[in-house]
Design brief:
The protein has 369 residues and is α/β, with parallel strands linked by helices. It has 3 domains: 2-57, Orthogonal Bundle (Arc Repressor Mutant, subunit A); 69-181 and 333-361, Response regulator (Rossmann fold, 3-Layer(aba) Sandwich), CATH 3.40.50; 183-329, Response regulator (Rossmann fold). Helices cover 38% and strands 15% of the residues. The strands form 4 sheets. Strands 4-3-5-6-7-13 form a 6-stranded parallel sheet, with helices on both faces. The protein has a 4-stranded parallel sheet with strand order 9-8-10-11, with helices on both faces. Strands 1-2 form a two-stranded antiparallel sheet. The chain is elongated and about 85 Å long. It starts with a helix and ends with a strand.
């Protein structure tokens, strides 16, 4: 009933909501029933709780100074000053940050204002207050190390009725407009490339965390192997990722020694693996160092992923005497652009009501030694 009163103007937008006792009296119901109803109104963004029992009916039609602004939720490493757009296939020194770069660039190219929000500077109250200003929309790029914020942010966007898009594959975000890298296809392509080079005993190395994207990667490996008529080897689950030591050299040394110990059983005669697919380029270099420590012949093929080996080689050439034999470019900048494209199509009512999921095909990049 209260929702209908707000919609038909009986309770006018921008005015104070009557007290709970007054509403209970007018509707002839108990106070507890009204309290539950008011909580629902707050969760749906129809009423703004401003403290001290003061609640304002949200004016969704009121003009806002943010009506031409798209907010991009990003970490401090995503500067508002944009670097040049990176061509597909070139090393991407921004790592996942380039998704945010691409989104900001696309917002500006579309002629809208952009605002960068730090995800850890917003409590629920501050986020709700910001969304009351009715921005045109919000882009939440793939934040691999901030997955805990997804449910809270999604709930806030829905309460406020503000259009939003998400990047990445994470639990609990299935009912959202999303743009994701096709992780299964990427792992499939890199495994198939190794198979085409004549390798058959290919080991897949992935983090033990079992996020959806990790399981998609494993599925791609298995699909490529079975299509080639080769039995997949059991996935090696990396239980030490990440280390996060403040000394980069120490971190690399510890990780390399860890892999030397764990991978030694995979190099016994008659049962030795003949290639490895790493989680990313950084891990590929750690595995290459482990192979050298184990006395594995130079040139043993280790495939990387994410296409940032060139940046590692530039900053820490000592880690990179041999690059990965192949890597995958997820096209992070273009992922950010596609997020904004999807958001604008939602804002302009060009999409069906059900959530849309778009996959961006990665690019395979063989690396010349």
């Amino acid at each position: 009933m209260l929702q209908e009163w707000i919609r038909n103007g009986t309770l006018k937008e921008g005015t104070l909501l009557p007290s709970e006792r007054q509403l209970a009296s007018e509707l002839g119901v108990g106070l507890a029933t009204i309290q539950r109803a008011v909580r629902v109104l707050e969760e749906e963004g129809m009423v703004d709780n401003r403290g001290k029992r003061m609640r304002v009916i949200v004016n969704r039609q009121a003009p806002s100074f943010l009506s031409g602004t798209i907010a991009v939720v990003a970490t401090p490493e995503t500067p508002v000053t944009m670097p040049p757009k990176i061509a597909a296939g070139a090393p991407q020194p921004g790592y996942l940050r380039y998704i945010g770069h691409g989104a900001i660039g696309a917002v500006r190219a579309a002629g809208y204002h952009t605002m960068v929000l730090h995800p850890h500077k917003f409590g629920r109250e501050q986020l709700d207050q910001f969304l009351l200003q009715r921005p045109l929309g919000v882009v939440l790029p793939e934040l691999h190390y901030d997955v805990s914020i997804f449910p809270e942010f999604v709930a806030a966007f829905r309460r406020a009725g503000v259009p939003f898009v998400l990047g990445g594959s994470y639990d609990g975000v299935a009912e959202c407009d999303r743009v994701i890298s096709d992780h299964e296809q990427g792992e499939y392509e890199v495994t198939r490339w190794l198979l085409q080079q004549g390798h058959r005993r290919i080991l897949c190395v992935l983090p033990v965390l079992r996020f959806p994207w990790i399981l998609e990667r494993e599925a791609g490996y298995i699909r490529a192997m079975r299509e080639a008529g080769v039995e997949p080897l059991p996935t090696f689950w990396d239980e030490m990722s990440p280390v996060g030591l403040p000394d980069v050299q120490a971190d690399f040394r510890v990780r390399s020694q860890y892999f030397a110990g764990c991978l030694a059983p995979f190099f016994v005669p008659q049962r030795s693996v003949d290639a490895i697919v790493a989680t990313n380029d950084s891990q590929a270099l750690e595995i290459k160092a482990a192979c050298r420590a184990l006395g594995v012949a130079q040139g043993f093929p280790v495939a990387g992923y994410d296409n940032f080996y060139g940046e590692i080689a530039r900053v820490h050439p000592e880690f990179c005497p041999e690059p990965p034999v192949v890597t995958i470019d997820k096209r992070n900048y273009e992922l950010g652009e596609e997020l904004v494209r999807l958001l604008l199509e939602r804002v302009e009512n060009k999409l069906p009501a059900e959530p849309q999921v778009r996959k961006l095909a990665p690019v395979l990049i063989p690396i010349q030694p």
